[in-house]
Write a structure and sequence with these properties.
With 158 residues, the chain is of the alpha+beta class. 29% of the residues lie in helices and 29% in strands. The longest helix has 13 residues. The N and C termini lie close together (6 Å). It binds magnesium ion. The site of magnesium ion has 5 residues, from strand 1 and helix 1.
Length: 158
């Protein structure tokens, strides 16, 4: 059976944190705040995959109260979800995601992000879609207070 899931995440931009998106560290004067590396793109993809198989969200599987996940690369969450899906005999058809931010510029890093995500999920590069857009200076994203990401996943269940 073909099933789909949706994911959304947002993290604040603050000083003194790295800006890691799609598993790629992007040089930027501010970074994303959170318990893990706060990689909003990977978190949205993780939730899309979990949603596709009816699992509870990323906060359930990797709680921000658990010291194990403090400052970890979020790629680890994708690797664990990959194994969860494998155990359920679920295969990934494709994932697609959009980052919404005014800065940094995302396009130069998309190729590298796709490589990280494809490797973590053990899927092909052409099964990973990543796009970026601005919020046309409106709202919290427009004021550069944070970065938002949304994702969908399509999977095949037995
Ligand atoms: Mg998050």
């Amino acid at each position: 059976m073909n099933r789909v899931g949706i994911g959304y995440d947002v993290h604040q931009l603050v000083e003194g944190r790295k800006c890691i998106l799609g598993g790629v560290e992007i040089p930027h004067p501010v970074g994303l705040d959170g318990h893990s590396d706060a990689d909003a793109l990977i978190h949205a993809i993780a939730d899309a995959l979990l949603g596709a198989v009816g699992q509870p969200d990323i906060g359930y599987h990797f709680p921000n109260t658990d010291p194990r996940w403090k400052d970890v690369p979020s790629k680890i969450f994708l690797e664990q979800i990959r194994e969860l899906l494998r155990g359920m005999k679920v295969t990934i058809n494709n994932i697609d995601a959009t980052l919404v931010c005014e800065a940094p510029k995302i396009n130069p890093h998309i190729k590298a992000m796709k490589a990280v995500i494809a490797e973590a999920l053990m899927i092909r590069l052409d099964q990973v879609g990543i796009k970026a857009t601005t919020n046309e200076t409106m709202g919290f994203v427009g004021r550069k207070e944070g970065i938002a990401a949304m994702a969908v996943a399509s999977v095949e269940t037995p």
